């Protein structure tokens, strides 16, 4: 019955307007582990990391060329138990970074966030994956938001712009006169990528938690009650069905 329902959902999307860029808040790993009876809730991070590979396969199959995933915020890195954070970082290194760097992977990797808050090994693994996939010819782009905070990203973008203008000898008044949204966007950690059309958050939480605050200004939002490791293909197809049924206004 599940396969029949999934095929029916897929057929209804034929010819529909699908998002070019999907962003996902992969929430609920620990709660899923507790629900499944694991003694260590951090085990959910392994299942969550493994599941990303499957979800990327669904995106490639449907021709969704840009994906951004929210792996960990700055607050996650600083406020959670040290052992749990260490476990999550090892999962990122072993499951995400190393696997995506393999030649058979379709995805070009980009990292967005405050990388100085990451352990050296995690930072190195992600940068290695980024370098290894930089010249990959496949048209699929994955942005890994880790050590990420949307407000910090905007502040960093403005600081970068002001620093460059100061070196060029420009006055504050001159900078303010020419300041535009486009100039700030060009300094964001995600610069060069299209803004997300659809943002999906799992686990039933209805908030953005600082994710892509600038980029998602006109995105369609979809909140799913299932936890990330239990996020099924039918859940993903339902999100796309909801997106296809909406009339995007872009603030108009």
From TrEMBL:
Binds 2 magnesium ions per subunit. Substrate binds at residues 28-32, 45, 73-75, 80, 201, 207-209. Gene3D superfamilies: Decaprenyl diphosphate synthase-like. It is an enzyme of class 2 (transferase). Its EC number is 2.5.1.-. Mg(2+) binds at residues 27, 220. The keyword Zinc-finger does not apply. GO terms for biological process: polyprenol biosynthetic process. Its cofactor is Mg(2+). GO terms for cellular component: plasma membrane. It holds the Pfam family Prenyltransf. The active site is at 27, 76 (proton acceptor). Keywords: Magnesium, Metal-binding, Transferase. GO terms for molecular function: ditrans,polycis-polyprenyl diphosphate synthase [(2E,6E)-farnesyl diphosphate specific] activity; magnesium ion binding; Z-farnesyl diphosphate synthase activity. Signal peptide: none annotated. Catalyzes the condensation of isopentenyl diphosphate (IPP) with allylic pyrophosphates generating different type of terpenoids. Homodimer. Belongs to the UPP synthase family. Z-FPP synthase subfamily. This is Isoprenyl transferase. It comes from Paractinoplanes rishiriensis.
């Amino acid at each position: 019955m599940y396969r029949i329902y999934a095929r029916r959902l897929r057929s209804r999307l034929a010819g529909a307007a699908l998002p070019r860029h999907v962003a996902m808040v992969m929430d609920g790993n620990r709660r899923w582990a507790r629900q499944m009876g694991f003694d260590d809730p951090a085990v959910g991070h392994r299942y969550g990391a493994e599941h990303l590979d499957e979800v990327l396969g669904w995106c490639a199959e449907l021709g969704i060329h840009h994906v951004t995933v929210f792996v960990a915020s700055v607050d996650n890195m600083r406020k959670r138990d040290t052992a749990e954070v260490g476990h999550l970082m090892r999962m990122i290194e072993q499951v995400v970074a190393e696997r995506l760097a393999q030649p058979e992977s379709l995805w070009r990797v980009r990292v967005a966030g405050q990388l100085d808050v990451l352990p050296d090994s995690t930072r190195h693994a992600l940068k290695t994956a980024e370098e290894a996939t930089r010249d990959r010819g496949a048209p699929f782009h994955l942005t890994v938001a880790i050590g990420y905070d949307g407000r910090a990203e905007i502040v960093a973008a403005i600081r970068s712009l002001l620093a460059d203008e100061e070196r060029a000898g420009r006055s504050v008044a001159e900078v303010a006169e020419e300041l535009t949204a486009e100039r700030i966007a060009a300094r964001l950690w995600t610069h060069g990528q299209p803004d997300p059309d659809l943002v999906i958050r799992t686990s039933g939480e209805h908030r953005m938690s600082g994710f892509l605050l600038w980029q998602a200004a006109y995105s369609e939002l979809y909140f799913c009650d299932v936890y990330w490791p239990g996020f099924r293909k039918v859940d993903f197809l339902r999100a796309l069905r909801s997106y296809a049924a909406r009339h995007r206004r872009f603030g108009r």
